[in-house]
Design a protein that fits this description.
Structural class: mainly alpha
Number of helices: 30
Strand content: under 5%
Order of helices and strands: HHHHHHHHHHHHHHHHHHHHHHHHHHHHHH
Radius of gyration: 25 Å
């Protein structure tokens, strides 16, 4: 699970992939590619790579934006990016090769550049806060929170400007540490390692055949998912109608958000996410909407006024939001201190030289002497150190962008004063290093947790005079720095294992980030203009984390006075429970701890409801049955099937948004009514 509560990552197992790539009696990875010339870093950065990256970044930005604005659960798209990048460029080069016009063959280094650029670009759709802190500043979310602490409505101009001045600092902050992290400390970076093994395998003859089949499978399910979304659209002419409002378990269960909404996206997400993530989300939904909210609702008139609307934060809505916040903070702080302690312990032993770092799956010292590994390591280290990025360049870049940002950001968001930003930028390189190092050990980026710390710190410092907006904006500044820092170090690890130059990795990350700073706001703006109810609780795109982040900022400024009656006690209970569950999970170890649910995942349906958890569990069930029937085929093709379902449904949002902008309504409303409502309709029709 990556990017704290908002982003769930699940890729190939690096250890298993390594076994496939390094068979005992066959050549090692770099011996297979020994006869292939490694292109210079400039030749790795091809025009065709960036054209493909731009097209894919638009596709993935729509997908991430849709996930951001619906539930906030975002799976890893690295596999899809690498696979589609390989397919598009390989198809193009084959055509040129047959016509005799091919000047430069397609290499794994170029494939790595595409994957890096696409993930950097679509990553801005996450770290840009369109479903969290940035949209949380809007008047629409402020009204739902009952907050008069000011607002700043979205506008394409200031969003693009804000992202451009805060999204590049993380890149410059960790560049000087790339050798220490990748070569000296030998940090694992599981996602980066898995992506490298995937790309390496694509460019072997056997891997290319499998990739071709995977792309074909992805295309089939992409088409099915897109057409299914189009078919469903015809039946959604009114509110609460169509397949998305299908009362699968009855109308009573539907009222409490228990239903299957036929979402191809979340069936696909369920196939990518680990089983325990999906089960945790479902358990959270049962606990909250099945038990707690119905019980608290019986205290109406005692714990909170009976006449309050359902969206009022001093009513039942307040319990939903603040208890979820308590669980998110408990889980986030526990993992923050766990990763921080591992980081400090690892650094201490590394500096003192007493023992190796506590890195999982590290080969023993004896196995390091094997010829295959030593040859691979030698070749990779030699090329990784060949194209140096000068330290003065990264320091000068950081200072320059920090100075520009400190001047510009207060003019965009007046409540965030220049001295708040200056303090953040003084501490940011240290925090970026901690996040990048911790991510290398655990594959867990704590960008959201660092953002929440900024919300509470800057919000409390600013106080009642603009503290809510200052805290949200500070969250954005901090999240962008630490998120891009860990992403870049993951890419350096991928580049190290595929012999891609650090310079080409850095340049592709910069170009991808630049693309994201334009593409992501434009995609969000399309959603914002097309759907008038964007951000409202029962809408198609409720943006759940926007109100969560807004209320965190209110809590930081106002303290516990913002909570309804007995809500604080329940928050304490669930905050402690989140810490206790994580502690028990760690104490039980990997074998038994894997059966303990994740509090962060449990907290997500507290506000939204469990309907999407049912979709995800259906995806898990499909994968489980498939693995029982044919595990090898499931391992090879399940990521492609899941990616096709997600991509098809995600890209359907583009024509859906255009139809909404044009005010074209579907022709049919397929609504499911209770017996009492049906009898009223019969009476009306009879009269």
């Amino acid at each position: 699970m990556d990017r704290a509560e908002d982003r769930v990552e699940h890729g190939f197992n690096p250890e298993e992939e390594d076994k496939k790539g390094l068979k005992g009696d066959e050549m090692s990875v770099e011996q297979i590619f020994e006869r292939q010339e490694v292109p210079s870093w400039r030749k790795q950065l091809t025009m065709r790579a960036f054209v493909v990256s731009f097209v894919l970044s638009i596709l993935f930005s729509f997908i991430v934006m849709k996930l951001n604005l619906t539930t906030g659960i975002i799976p890893s798209l690295n596999v899809s990016a690498g696979l589609l990048g390989f397919f598009f460029v390989r198809t193009w080069t084959k055509i040129l090769e047959k016509s005799g016009l091919l000047k430069q063959p397609f290499t794994r280094q170029e494939n790595t550049v595409i994957q890096t650029c696409v993930v950097a670009s679509s990553g801005i759709a996450f770290s840009g806060g369109f479903g969290s802190y940035l949209f949380g500043m809007s008047e629409r979310i402020a009204k739902q929170s009952g907050d008069s602490g000011g607002f700043k409505n979205p506008s394409l101009g200031w969003i693009i400007g804000f992202l451009f001045v805060v999204s590049f600092l993380g890149l410059f902050s960790v560049v000087p540490l790339r050798k220490i992290m990748v070569i000296d400390f030998k940090l694992t970076y599981p996602s980066g390692t898995a992506t490298a093994h995937l790309i390496n395998s694509f460019h072997t003859p056997q891997g290319a055949k499998l990739a071709k089949k995977q792309v074909k499978t992805l295309g089939k399910f992409f088409s099915f998912s897109f057409l299914w979304g189009f078919f469903q659209w015809f039946f959604t002419a009114g509110d609460d109608c169509g397949f998305v409002s299908f009362p699968t378990f009855g109308l009573k269960a539907y009222k409490n958000k228990f239903y299957f909404d036929f979402s191809a996206t979340y069936v696909g997400v369920g196939m990518i996410c680990p089983y325990m993530i999906n089960i945790s989300v479902l358990l959270g939904g049962i606990l909250s909407w099945g038990l707690m909210w119905p019980l608290i609702e019986t205290r109406k008139g005692d714990w909170y006024p009976a006449g309050l609307p359902s969206s009022n934060m001093h009513g039942l809505q307040g319990y939903k939001v603040f208890i979820a916040i308590a669980m998110i903070l408990g889980d986030g702080l526990y993992n923050f201190f766990k990763v921080l302690s591992r980081t400090l312990t690892g650094l201490f032993y590394q500096v003192r030289g007493r023992q190796a770092l506590p890195i999982a799956n590290q080969p023993s010292p004896e196995s390091d002497t094997s010829k295959k590994l030593s040859y691979d390591d030698q070749r990779r280290t030699q090329l990784f150190l060949k194209d140096q990025i000068p330290t003065w360049f990264s320091i000068a870049g950081y200072v320059t962008i920090a100075a520009i940002s400190t001047i510009v950001v207060p003019h965009i968001i007046h409540e965030l004063k220049w001295y708040y930003i200056l303090v953040i930028y003084i501490f940011a390189p240290t925090l970026a290093f901690c996040n990048a190092y911790g991510c290398g050990l655990t594959d867990w980026s704590l960008a959201s947790t660092y953002g929440k710390l900024a919300i509470f710190t800057i919000g409390a410092w600013a106080g009642s005079h603009g503290g809510v907006l200052a805290g949200l904006a500070a969250c954005g500044v901090m999240m962008n720095i630490v998120s891009t820092a860990s992403d870049l170090m993951q890419d350096f690890k991928t580049g190290y294992l595929t012999l891609a130059s650090p310079r080409s990795m850095f340049v592709s990350q910069v170009i991808g980030t630049s693309m994201g700073c334009i593409v992501s706001p434009c995609v969000f703006w399309l959603f914002y203009k097309a759907f008038d109810d964007l951000g409202l609780p029962n809408s198609q795109y409720p943006a759940p984390f926007a109100i969560v982040y807004r209320n965190m900022s209110i809590l930081g400024v106002q303290g516990f006075s913002a909570l309804p009656k007995n809500c604080l006690l329940l928050c304490y209970v669930f905050f402690g429970a989140a810490i206790a569950i994580n502690f028990i999970k760690d104490m039980l170890g990997k074998k038994w701890g894997s059966f303990i649910p994740l509090p962060m995942a449990m907290a997500i349906p507290f506000y939204l409801g469990p309907y999407f958890a049912i979709d995800m569990c259906v995806g898990s069930l499909i994968l489980f049955v498939w693995e029982k029937l044919n595990k090898a085929k499931a391992d090879a093709f399940a990521p492609a099937v899941a990616s096709g379902l997600i991509c098809g449904d995600g890209i359907w949002t583009l024509p859906n948004s255009i139809l909404a902008l044009a005010r074209v309504k579907p022709p049919i409303c397929m609504k499911f009514l209770s017996r009492a409502t049906n009898s009223k309709v019969d009476t009306f029709l009879g009269s």
